[in-house]
Design goal:
The structure is a homodimer of 241-residue chains. By secondary structure, chain A is an alpha/beta fold. The first copy, chain A, has a 7-stranded mixed beta sheet, sandwiched between helices. In chain A, helix 9 links the parallel strand 4 and strand 5. The longest helix of chain A is centred in the N-terminal third of the chain and has 18 residues. The two termini of chain A are 21 Å apart. Chains A and B meet through helix 4 and helix 6 of A and helix 4 and helix 6 of B.
């Protein structure tokens, strides 16, 4: 019997990829509005390259952007970038379509819920708290805290230990075939690949590790019924592998 | 003749002390709301002590607060603090009463305006841009950029040089007797002490360096008339010294 459902956070519960893109665009627009002497496409593409090289958690994106564009440092433009970015992130963060509805249904059905996520612990908690979803989750397991990243087995084993369940009693739901699905399957969990966002057309390399594939989180209750040998029809739940 | 009016930023143009206090209170309240096991007064007073010791620009206030309270680290509580703090700072920043009205009047009267401020350049610019006051000021001179703090003469001399005026053609307006008034007088500027906020009842040690004392920024046009030998009555402008 399935007892625990684990979710990835970014682009599974919190709709963050769309938000990040919008925030970056607004940052560049606000910098240009305040006099940054460069056209939008040049600056935006340079920012994407920079994020690609330094990672999205690098704290000096806008400083470095000026350097890369050979523009003399001006704290006014950095501030304009920070404002454009933050205003977007703080006001437009949303949960993924049907995430809240699904969490309510699973809670009512008696499932225990957890999050297994990579990323900066404070920033990840900020998203959960801003979305006011914290009460749904018994535990949030953040890989940075353990010194590893998904799909490292340590983070999934830690999650099972914290909840006191065996791998067979747990399901992992996530949008990343490698990090979430291959990782969870590696410790023996059941896996549900949520085809969503920029990874919905991911390469199929790790798809064999997904027991189920869903396009909408509201398909989850049915998946769980199937796993528990219930009467649910599985015609809209595509078994993977 | 006075040509340039320089303003301090914090608690002269941007109403930041009140805001910072409110932001800190909201941070603690949000941490407690999310389970921080300590009463408000204990946590708040510990935070004030910490800020006193590490400075207000220290980036790890909430981390360190948990350490000081002997509470095990929990990124959820740090995130709750960050959210409470940022939500307040980003939504409740206001200009000081009559600041905008005064800036408009001085602009219309032909004065050139500048800001001379301490603090982190990006954070200072954030305040100016969020208040949408940037178009009033020809230049913003930030002491951190010069490697000094007010009342060091370098920052005031830099301001005069950037504007291309002599000290006698410039007035400095600020709420800090030591940083703003003593500092500006040291290079020969005219000085106006703005009695405002937590420093309105400051000790009188440096008060002799204030040529004028005002309680409302709208008194400034009259001060300037007096300095320029105009017809303005000076009965509500208290000459200092």
């Amino acid at each position: 019997m399935i007892e625990v459902v684990f979710f990835d956070l970014d682009d599974t519960i919190a709709d963050t990829s769309v938000l990040a893109e919008r925030a970056r665009r607004n940052a560049i627009e606000n910098m240009i509005k305040h006099g940054l002497p460069v056209d939008f496409e040049t600056a935006y593409n340079e920012l994407l390259e920079l994020i690609n090289e330094y990672g999205s958690n690098f704290s000096r994106h806008f400083d470095y952007l000026l350097r890369r564009l050979d523009i003399p440092y001006n704290p006014k433009w950095v501030a304009a970038g920070v404002i454009g970015y933050h205003n977007t992130k703080f006001t437009q963060l949303r949960d993924v379509r049907h995430a809240r509805k699904t969490l309510i249904r699973l809670s009512k059905a008696g499932y225990r819920l957890g999050i297994i996520t990579d990323g900066d612990p404070i920033k990840q908690w900020e998203k959960i708290l801003r979305l006011e979803l914290d009460d749904f989750f018994e535990e949030v397991i953040i890989s940075d805290f353990e010194g590893v990243k998904k799909p490292h087995p340590k983070i999934f084993q830690k999650a099972l230990k914290v909840f006191g369940v065996s791998a067979g009693e747990a399901v992992m739901v996530g949008d990343r075939l490698y990090s979430d699905i291959y990782g969870a399957k590696g410790v023996g969990m059941h896996t549900v690949w949520f085809r969503y966002g920029k990874r919905r057309n991911a390469e199929l390399e790790y798809r064999e590790y997904a027991d189920f594939v869903i396009n909408d989180l509201l398909e989850l209750p049915e998946v769980l019924e199937v796993l528990n040998g219930g009467e649910g029809s599985n015609k809209e739940v595509h078994a993977g592998g």
